[in-house]
Amino acid sequence: MEALTWTGMLAPLNLIFQALLGLLAVMAALQILASLLRLDTGGTISNADGTMALQPGAGGLLGRLVFYLFLALVALLLVYLLAGVLLGARAGIFGGMARQLLPVWVALAATFALSMRFKRRLGLYGKLFDSTVGMIGFAIVMFWVFAGVFGGVFDLLVTHDSLSQASGMKNKLPGTPLRGAEAGEYPWFLLGGDNLARDVFSRLIEGAWVVVKIAPFATLFAFMVGITLGLPAGYYGGRLDTFLSFLANLILAFPVILLFYLLVTPEIVLTGIPNYMALFLFAFPLIFLAILLNARYYTQPSVRTPLLIVVLGLGAWLYLSMVSTDGAIVRTPTYVIPGLPGFIDLFDIDPGILVVFVSVVFVNSPTVFRIVRGLALDIKTRDYVAAAQTRGEGPWYIMLWEILPNARGPLIVDFCLRIGYTTILLGTLGFFGLGLESESPDWGSTINAGRRLLSLYPHAAIAPALALLSLVLGLNLLADGLREESLRD
């Protein structure tokens, strides 16, 4: 069996792709030069109604040309993608990956079709599809979300076991055929093998699942902590604000990497400190929900009481399941604090993931607290807050149902950006071998393993590095799109 080339039967299209890419780069450079030389617009012309209009000029014409070349490049990439899905490995490495990622393409197409169809009913999320930058960022982010879910949970995308070693595949280049492939086994290593003869493509997909299951939820928990503490600090002010701000500034005074290093080192883990931190930090979503529902239905006890019982009962069950591992909340060499018994414990979080999760929440919470506090200080002076106070609404109702909804724009944007920061932090931890297991397929660990032979076999490190770069880029573009649309509200 021969090794795959990058594009296989689609090789004749490569010349067109290179030509379009080169023209796009040249025209973009000329457009920048035209803007520097103030050639963006030409003279003025008179319209029939007597108004004046500016002619496009050289810069405007170059801008249109850049736009059309970009559309042509996107169309050609779609041709590569569709041909790869249809031809599979006959279209080379790109075709093989396109065929493997077919569930992701279907999910993306369905998401965009439904979102575009009902975008006027979807609030700020629907308005995102009026922003080109936001749509591009959303597409990149959802690509990795779907790749992580379909590959890590349903095992639909990976071609080989990410931990298994294949004989003779150590440091093999992308497209190398698998030696002695059995019937039903995928016959190639699409992105080559790493220094332990493991499939880079499969580890890349499973590494996406590591990011997807940690970064968004850890950021969400950090927001729950920051919102629950930041709102009263900004609304009440005084000694409460001074005390909470001092604690936040105390944590922020330490370098982030040093804090991570201290929290995930084995010596700290053995003391049980991360478990105690989980016991404290994971309670904040429960506290937030309780206050939110109580403030909303305070005047309707017949609705409030059963709703709180159901929500807090399920929430407490989830909370205890999260902080309990193997029947213990804290387990050290000298003592054990018992948790939920196994038959009612819904799930166990891997100790390495728990430590990283808690560390991310602890490090991000003070920054979120300061943002929420600042927004609360500004919004509490608005007229609608004064109107709510005049109606006799309670402080928590005003904070959660008047101030917080009007602060959602900046918070949503920061949430997207903070997921990107968290993704970078996870990659940094994995690169230094902290927190997650050494054999974990997370992108940071994979980059660290591949960098040792970077000059000879760059594929093992470049693939996860590009994945990390693209996800963070997508999150930044998504945040830009959300910021643009939230400013129009």
TrEMBL record:
Keyword Transmembrane: yes
Protein name (database record): ABC transporter permease
Compartments reported by the entry: Cell membrane
InterPro entries: BP-dependent_transpt_permease, MetI-like, MetI-like_sf
Limits of the ABC transmembrane type-1 domain: 208-479
Originating species: Sulfitobacter aestuarii
SUPFAM superfamilies linked: MetI-like (SSF161098)
Family, per entry: Belongs to the binding-protein-dependent transport system permease family.
Keywords from the named record: Cell membrane, Membrane, Transmembrane, Transmembrane helix, Transport
The organism's place on the tree of life at top rank: Bacteria
